[in-house]
Amino acid sequence: MIELNLNNLTNDFPLLNKLMALEEVVWFNPNVTTLDQGLPYVGLDEEDIHDASLRLQRFAPYLAKAFPETQLSNGIIESDLVDIPTMKTALEAYYQLPIKGRLMMKKDSHLPISGSIKARGGIYEVLTHAEKLAFEAGLLSESDDYSKLLEPEFREFFKQYSIAVGSTGNLGMSIGIMSAKLGFTVSVHMSADARAWKKNKLREHGVNVVEYEQDYGVAVEQGRKEAELDPSCFFIDDENSKTLFLGYSVAGERLKQQFAQQQIVVDEAHPLFVYLPCGVGGGPGGVAFGLKMAFGDHVHCLFAEPTHSPCMLLGVHTGLHDEIAVQDLGIDNLTAADGLAVGRASGFVGRAMERLLDGYYTLTDERMYQLLGQLNQAEAIKLEPSALAGMPGPIHVEHNTEYMTRLGIDDSTLSNSTHLVWATGGGMVPEQEMAMYLAKSSI
């Protein structure tokens, strides 16, 4: 790691003073490029997404039988796309500002199996690893009906291998549930901010949960160390995994299909703005990559982070990426948004996607709770706090004149735009826990 001089940093990047004061900030990336210019830095392309999509299709017959909740979608793990017009009215009233475009929500919060966006990347990486092992052992080929994975011989085979991951909660849920179902021995290393109910649910599935009093970074590091001691253990690295990233990226082509079904146009005259809660960056980074590949330069992605954990904004804004952590600025990384409680961003995602992301903003825990209550009241949709991070995005976008001018978007174009809030978690939160969230929302 490089040696940081805080005085020099704050002189070079005055925005850091606001971050250190835990103020809500908005930063539109002046270095954003076209897809053609930014794509070479990602190191992945459309063919990689297509390969991931085909793999998920191969596993669909197995998933439909292993998880009955996926039967209606024939084993494809996908979420609903819904309008939230009453919430749009509530936001306009709160900010005393209009939102000219259409406001929608992508309910990854209610994805089957693990109830969060992590069901995309986490489950995909476990399936990819399982397929590789089964191929190498001569137990499976691409032309097979993958529902054969339910047979006892496969559980016995996978029992020889273990999987480990470090998590604040939701990634651990998706990897733990999927790995255990296949027969793997699985350990989830969970940081102090992980919710008790998530730990309990994993244990119910036979997952070994290792708890830490420290934050996400320590949980990941310890998980990695444990895996290194066991040659049969596969460590899933949320910070650097291109496989996880590709699992999330399939969301782009899926959303494009949903838009076509609902006759929603995305082009120069009908821009799409997408707001993604960001922790370490793998989930939102992968989704944003998939969206850029699906919609090109007509989609504009923004990341949202808690004021106490603005790791991706910090890394990209300074250009230091994973060489700087929020703790280096004296920021405590303590937030109710457990899925976003990350002090150091993924260097892979930051460097791969920095030219393709339009902006970043932060919001307080109090605001997330407030939005949680407003959404429940307006649309009867219940989310966990971190999943509300994307909700103020349309206000920041539409009322930043400099940003709109840079994009060449006027009021008439804005009226034709679609704002999409990506809801990332909450579908499996127990009623008692949700009642506590809602109680805090009215404080």
TrEMBL record:
Positions where N6-(pyridoxal phosphate)lysine occurs in the chain: 118
Cofactor names: pyridoxal 5'-phosphate
EC number: 4.3.1.18
Membrane-spanning ranges: none
Tryptophan synthase beta chain-like PALP domain segment(s): 99-393
Record SUPFAM superfamilies: Tryptophan synthase beta subunit-like PLP-dependent enzymes
Catalytic reaction list: D-serine = pyruvate + NH4(+)
Signal peptide: none
Single GO term (MF): hydro-lyase activity
Superkingdom, taxonomy of origin: Bacteria
Family: Belongs to the serine/threonine dehydratase family. DsdA subfamily.
Protein name: Probable D-serine dehydratase
Species assigned in the record: Vibrio chagasii
